[in-house]
Amino acid sequence: MPQPGNRALGATLEGLELNGNFANMSGRNKAGESRTKPAAGLATLLLCGTVLAGVPATAFAQTATGEGQQEAAQDPASAPEPIDNTIRTISVVGAERLEAQTILSYIRLRVGQEYTSAGADAALKDLGATELFSNFSIRNDGGNVVIEVTENPVINRIILEGNRRLKNDKILPEIKLAPRQIFTRSKVRADVARIIELYKRQGRFAATVEPQMVMLPQNRVDIVFEITEGPKSKVRQINIIGNEEFSDGELRGAMVTKQARWHRFFSSNTSYDPDRLAFDQQQLRAFYLENGYADFRVVSAVAELTPDKEDFIITYVVEEGERYKFGDVTVESQLRDFDSDRLQSGLPMQTGDWYNAKQIEDTVEQITELAGTFGYAFADVQPRFDRSREDLTMNVNFVIREAPRVYVERVDVNGNTLTQDKVVRREFRIAEGDAFNSLQVARTTARINSLGYFQENFEVNQAEGSQPDRIVLEANVQEQPTGELQLSAGYSSLERFILAASVRQRNFRGRGQTVGLSVNWSRFSRSASISFQEPYLFNRNISAGVDIYRREFNSFNFRSRDRNRTFEQSTTGFQLRAGVPLTEYMSFIGSYTLNIDDISLDENVYFSDFDGDGIRTCEPLFAGRFLCDAIGKRTSSIVGGNIVYSTLDSRLRPTRGENVSLSTEVAGLGGSVKYVRVRGQAAKYWPVGAGFIFSLSAEGGAINSLEDSNRPGFDDVILTDRFQLGEPRFRGFDIRGVGPRVIRQPYVDDGEGGVVALTERNQVVDDALGGRAYYLGRAELEIPLGTGARELGLRPSIFMDVGALFAVTKPILQDNPNGIQQRNTDGDLVYLTRLRDENGDVVLDPVTGNPRFTSTTDAIDPEGVANAPSIIQGSRFREVFLGDSISPRVSVGIGVNWNSPFGPFRIDFARVLRSQPGDDTKRFTFNVGTQF
């Protein structure tokens, strides 16, 4: 019996190409073959009048054609019996991971239904929509429907190659494909487009992505995205057409996008960004509106990519329009607490002034803030404009709509998991039930930001309460790490190599307490300290703290250009302090300090027994009288008070506000040191636009002893208690490079029987004495950089420093052109006499033939010739006192702060414009690994 013909149905997924050939990812499926009996065979069966078998329907909605059907149509009596196309079974072949029932759930064919071509086509579409199969087909064997599938592979790995500018952690979270997912071509297509979009946002419009697929055993694949990043597309030129009143340069200055030039290598604004292009159109409009051109518009903005895909040329076509002046400017207030006439008299714009849209925005903001201070949190200020094109004037009416006075219904603190609620709530300057005040809310925001516990730019949110006259204040915080563990090594031009280790927790147990432990070591200093700070003692607005420390400091002078250790100071002590607020912006801090100081000199270098009494003492000839006077053990018992006024927006990195402090310390309530020391400091910061921050600061101090020794050449304020000035506080000068000093100048023979003193800096010994008074002023402008440099933590600035250190008792100076004669242990003067042998003859040097000499206490030799005095080596010098002048020293320069991975880095280039004799200048300084 002839078997009925059948047709297998198949589906083929074609290859994919995106920005390059999709190698190895083209479909490997075969089209279903169609096997159908010839039409003549069917006609023969029809002529016999016997139907042996029905022709099954196929998945394609195709009708058989041929002579047999035509003849059947002509002879209805000979038509075959109806064919039974009922689906008896549905089976799945080829599934590996997916269950057969899962695959069947994707299609609408069911057992008992009639098998039709339309139904089979719909089933194929359903299988294709799942994107789970690389090859699939449906066939009907006499009611037994067989679904053959080849599953898509499972992704083993996602590999990125060639991405240097965008790292994996920036790309992988943005794409859809991931390991252990089913591979689909649509996801690959979307991921390629997404990666290219990421590069476009960086200005790399020439970037291409070529996806590759590596086949692995067990139907697994590795997906490789081969990335060619290409150069960063810069803005080569910005053209502006239609501007007549303002030059191209003025308009480019108003834009954020800048033309690529060599001096903008730090700027990220030279790359093309479509979003920035739209923003620059708003900037152009704002620029013209600030200058009175109310009808200005940007007709078109076109960015053209050069053929090499490396640069863009941007062209703006603008229409300036006419320039307007202010007409009538009025205020209409519907609030009972606001007098329209008084508000109108205080407006910054007047009739006849050039129209300025920025002034109007600022005025609306100021009136809104003013209304907020009176409790109108939802005050609505709307400027209404009446433009007169005839006389080119703009009438403005500020309408303050009626609004209820608002009260704080409640304060919510959200997001704090470690920090206790009270730590945040105690910084609020406004309480539940108080009348709303926008100034107090702004102050609260500043205080919470200054804690440093939460995200940057935190703001107190305002939400409507249960009634129209109620408001809810929300502090939605995001906690940041407050613990610090630092292990660092660095180098500074001040202290050479530095090792530091510290542990600090600024929010200990979530209570706002600060606990710290630090250890530091360098060539000239060593220290260890433990500290604790409680900002709210017993939940009251009283701060308290304690520091316990041990410090060792090796002072030095400059012998030529080399540092030479002089005295060593070790200090052991503690400090107790407590502070109370006097006003919102002013506080008083009291302290008590107890220090035990031990100042010593190297006895092998600076001690001698010149008088022959058997006791070695500090010898001014070697150390200088000022150093000999400083050595010894002392106890300092110090009571201090400090008044601080601060409106800074941030204690860590202020951008606006001012800070003023005045402190007094009195030593003498016990201990062996008695003095009064006063210090003052003031600083003010201004944001001057475009990210620039200008600051002025000044400080000064004076110390006066409460004892009077009446000793000539002796200052009653010991050396270690005096002020010092120089690097790093006074840039352009070396450490202790400013102020009173003693310079020891050696004498040398002039070759004519006389002596001359050497005065070059690299030939003298320089000892800084410090001073009892000083002042220091600084003007600095912080320069903003592009986004890339800002992310690196680079903050350059230009500065000018002015200051002086002065007021110390002039010490007794030494002047020894002939040197100082030696003495023996008995105190007798020592002379040099010619060495004689047993016969009394003078012994000659066998090489030079000159007489040899030996020491003696006789002033006259046996022949009656005067013996030459034995001069102490290095005693031929004179001491010069310099630098004790109130006259200002001035330096200017440029510096860069960098929050490097190795710690804070500061580099300064300074030029001294004005100095005094004796000052030690230094043009270049840098410090890494420590912060001063």
UniProtKB/TrEMBL annotation:
<protein>
    <recommendedName>
        <fullName>Outer membrane protein assembly factor BamA</fullName>
    </recommendedName>
</protein>
<keyword id="KW-1134">Transmembrane beta strand</keyword>
<comment type="function">
    <text>Part of the outer membrane protein assembly complex, which is involved in assembly and insertion of beta-barrel proteins into the outer membrane.</text>
</comment>
<comment type="similarity">
    <text>Belongs to the BamA family.</text>
</comment>
<dbReference type="InterPro" id="IPR000184">
    <property type="entry name" value="Bac_surfAg_D15"/>
</dbReference>
<feature type="domain" description="POTRA">
    <location>
        <begin position="406"/>
        <end position="480"/>
    </location>
</feature>
<keyword id="KW-0472">Membrane</keyword>
<feature type="domain" description="POTRA">
    <location>
        <begin position="233"/>
        <end position="321"/>
    </location>
</feature>
<dbReference type="Pfam" id="PF01103">
    <property type="entry name" value="Omp85"/>
</dbReference>
<dbReference type="InterPro" id="IPR034746">
    <property type="entry name" value="POTRA"/>
</dbReference>
<dbReference type="GO" id="GO:0043165">
    <property type="term" value="P:Gram-negative-bacterium-type cell outer membrane assembly"/>
</dbReference>
<keyword id="KW-0812">Transmembrane</keyword>
<dbReference type="GO" id="GO:0051205">
    <property type="term" value="P:protein insertion into membrane"/>
</dbReference>
<dbReference type="InterPro" id="IPR010827">
    <property type="entry name" value="BamA/TamA_POTRA"/>
</dbReference>
<dbReference type="InterPro" id="IPR023707">
    <property type="entry name" value="OM_assembly_BamA"/>
</dbReference>
<feature type="domain" description="POTRA">
    <location>
        <begin position="153"/>
        <end position="230"/>
    </location>
</feature>
<comment type="subunit">
    <text>Part of the Bam complex.</text>
</comment>
<keyword id="KW-0998">Cell outer membrane</keyword>
<keyword id="KW-0732">Signal</keyword>
<feature type="region of interest" description="Disordered">
    <location>
        <begin position="65"/>
        <end position="84"/>
    </location>
</feature>
<dbReference type="InterPro" id="IPR039910">
    <property type="entry name" value="D15-like"/>
</dbReference>
<dbReference type="GO" id="GO:0009279">
    <property type="term" value="C:cell outer membrane"/>
</dbReference>
<dbReference type="Pfam" id="PF07244">
    <property type="entry name" value="POTRA"/>
</dbReference>
<keyword id="KW-0677">Repeat</keyword>
